[in-house]
Specification:
The protein is an alpha/beta fold. The protein has a single domain, classed as Rossmann fold. The chain is built from four helices and eight strands. Strands 1, 2, 3, 4, 5, 6, 7 and 8 form an eight-stranded mixed β-sheet that branches. Helix 2 packs across helix 4. The longest helix is centred in the C-terminal third of the chain and has 25 residues. The protein is elongated, with a radius of gyration of 23 Å.
Amino acid sequence: MTRTLSLALVVCMVGVTGCFRSPSPHFYSLVSQERIPSADQLAQNGVSVEVVPLIFPQYLNDPRLVVRSGDHEVLKEEYDRWAEDLDVNFRRVLLSDLSRNLKSGNVFSSDVYSQRRGAHVVQVEVLQFDVSEQGRAVLKSRWATAPNREALASAPLMISEFEGQAANSSSEARVSALSNLIDTLSKVVAQGIQSRG
């Protein structure tokens, strides 16, 4: 009888332990929201643009997705995480969106490629990039563009703030809304580059 009771107790403990297992994390990635043209559709002699290293706020230096719950409080989702460093993912999407909006195959990051003579230079500082619990996505940034690196130091700083709404409360929808905001920023930056000739 004691042996049967011990066996039953072990089976029960295994079942209870299984119930308390942590859920598996989900990993998300920002993506360009529109179809990216193939290399032969981008003008290889299009405007040359160098994007210097992005500046990101410290609160986004975390693999967990950030959800803003108030003006002064953010929550970090334990099981919803970025598939890679957010600044790296953000930069890749920005480069892709800028390429498409400028119709140029010569948009590159100075993190990866060395400086090229005659390239316009873009610097972006991200001030806020998150979604509220209600699904309101926000991208606040300070950015500048100049015809070369020397001129960047005296180029006027532009401040842009964009908002979007997630389709629902899922993390997938929140990330999609954030991706859309990067494309909006890229359109404004592209106009800034084009206005400088």
